[in-house]
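Listing S7. Sequence submitted for prediction.
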Amino acid sequence: MNSRNEIADLIYTNLLKKKEDLKHQFEQSKNTIGYFFIDELLPETFAKELYKVFPTTSNTVLRKNIREHKYVGYQMNTYHSLLEETLFAFQNERIVELVSKICNLKEIHSDEFLYAGGLSLMQKGNYLNPHLDNSHDKDRQRWRVLNLLYYVTPGWKLENGGNLELWPYGVKNEPITIESKFNRLIVMVTHQKSWHSVSTVNVDKTRTCISNYYFSNIPVLVSDDFHVTTFRGRPNEKTKNTILRFDSFLRNSVRKLFKKGIRENPHQYKK
């Protein structure tokens, strides 16, 4: 199993098999931050092979600042072909359509440029502060509406950290933690209120993730407006929160003046 079509067949089959349960998951959460997750998405041996061929952090891009500390990879032709085939399997039209139906969203499109998507690696001490994803694609033509996160670190445990956190009632309240479990796919909606983060990794292991975004011609919420990726501090980070608010204000102001920013965002796959 090496081609994206073969991998897509397996993903589609497993999603379809559990479609009603996944729809129920999403329905239960759609009024805040809609999400669902599915375990054992791909054969265990294949998922372990993906982990084995993940690049080391030295072959990825370090993102380290007050907002985040992680490693990303998006120029997929520089990595093992199995990673690219798997990543783009999630962009198969049948899967995009099925996920759209599960989430009851319309006019959904995949993104061949992997704008802000691709590979993610997090090691001990790495984190991602509460944030809202950038509202649009790289050309500001479509709205970002779904985030697909597929985790492939064998034996990952909740206590390891590096887990997805959803803040359905804002960043002043307690988050919902969803474990970055091996061979688990998490799909979450992205809109003006979908604050989420990744908890600090506590162990000397690397948490690996394959991520995709889906876009739409229409926003999830009528109230959605354009915004850059917007960060906040955690409830106990008052000073950091003040700094991040000002940082977000400045970056958003620049983007309103310069539609595509002062410089092109390098986080995209240039084929």
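Caption to Listing S7: primary sequence and predicted structure tokens for the chain studied. The two ends are 24 Å apart (CA to CA). The chain has a mean pLDDT of 93.
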